[in-house]
Amino acid sequence: MYGSILVFLGQKMSLRKHMGAAIRSIRTVRGADYGDLAEVSVKANISKLEQGKSNITLEKLVELCSALQFDSVALLAMCVAMQNGEHYTLTIKRAMDQLDAFQAEGGMELFSSQLVGSELLQRPRGKPRNTKNEEAVRELKDAGFSQAEVVDKLGLAKSTVSRYWLS
Predict the structure, then answer these.
(1) pTM for the complete prediction?
(2) Where are the domains of the chain?
């Protein structure tokens, strides 16, 4: 059903156009005009958004959704669902499954630890380490595998294995 809406001359519409259509639809259903959204943005910016000619920041998106009394996650789900040619319930279900898996992996605890009050912790300088890969390399090294065997077994770059091998 949605797939035929998405494809025009064999190309998918951009997320920006889906966002424009969603904002226009929500504004219309809510009976809001550009003047009702003046505290969020000027008329010209809302018009450009609704025409798919402008992008929106996350902060502005949340403000706009608040002014329209529409949940920002619901708006994003609508747009992603339309772009993927699926019903929004599938999009939401997939997102919930991913969030559940992320939480089971300890991701939500890590996410929470990245914030102190309203401030984002500064990460150490340099390239972030992949501790899972580092542990896998060390385990295989301790099990007697060569660096070349570890590269093949884990599918990592030789330089990555070498870096973890020596650390």
Answers:
(1) 0.69
(2) 2-103, 131-166
